[in-house]
Amino acid sequence: MNIHPDMTVGEVVAHHYRTAEVFKRHGIDFCCGGKRTLGKACTDKNIGWDTLATELDQVLQAPDMPSQNTDNWEPDFLAEFIVQTHHRYLRENLPLLREFTVKIAKVHGERHPELKVVEKQVELLAGDMLEHMAKEEQILFPYIKSLCAAQRLHQQSPVTPFGSVQNPIRMMEQEHDYAGSLLENVRDLTADFTPPADACTTYRVAFAKLRELDDDLRRHVHLENNVLFPKAVLLEKLLLNQN
Ligand SMILES: [Fe+2]
Ligand SMILES: [Fe+2]
Questions:
Q1: Of 59, 90, 112, 229, which residue is the least packed, with the fewest Cβ within 10 Å?
Q2: What residues pack around ion ligand 1 (CB closer than 5 A)?
Q3: What is the per-residue pLDDT across 193-204, written as a single tens digit (0 to 9) for each?
């Protein structure tokens, strides 16, 4: 892959997920902000093009396991992978994280008032993500799976109550942006999930879990926005053109 300034951040990460480290290091959003071009990201973050291109080339030239290249996966398999890994992770960890953030806000909220805002952001995030994942699992992903089945069986594109797949995708992307903004607030309030020197164990564990969730959600949203959704749009167009 030859890097050039007109490529989008999402395209590069979709091609090779390890480039995400480079974008993260420079504070460039690769999941919700994945549609931005590399050139624009450099201008916005005041980074020289040569610096970014060199760092990306280094990562791209390192050997990778081809089987882990999600860009080559079938959309139905990818949708199922997302449910079994990222949705499962959130369902298991959001309640735990809620407990931790409620507890530290209660115990340390007076000395660290930002913890009460963190607690609220996590509460909003948990509620929203549970509803969001249910919509993906009940509406969007089954439709994507039926598009794949139609292609394999040489059948027509399935009929939907929502018109084009682009409609639910647009809604999911807006919800991703909202979840991303909640986590960005938490990152800002906690100095990038850094516990203060006087933090107790629960405080430290809560921040470590928040950082873990932030990393997981970035990969999750990246897989949907930059890999799964474009594949679904393309497949739907292909099937409609065949009929
Ligand atoms: Fe999802
Ligand atoms: Fe999603």
A1: 59
A2: 136
A3: 999 988 889 899
> Which pLDDT belongs to residue 32?
82
Total domains, the chain: 2
Mean pLDDT of the chain: 93
Kindly identify the ligand whose nearest atom is closest to the C-alpha of 168.
2
> How many A from CA of 136 to the centre of ligand 2?
7
Domain housing 124: 73-242
CA atoms within 13 A on the CB side of 207: 19
- Residue 34 is predicted with a pLDDT of 86
Ligand 2: distance of its center to the CA of 32 in Å?
11
| 64, pLDDT greater than 80 | no
The rounded Å distance from CA 228 to ligand 1 centre is 10
Ligand 2 centre to CA of 108 (Å) is 33
Q: Which long-range contacts (CB under 8 A, 24 or more apart) does 135-139 make?
A: 135/168, 135/171, 135/172, 136/82, 136/83, 136/87, 136/172, 136/224, 137/83, 137/87, 139/168
Say whether both 60 and 117 belong to one domain: no
- Quick one: 21 and 135 in the same domain? no
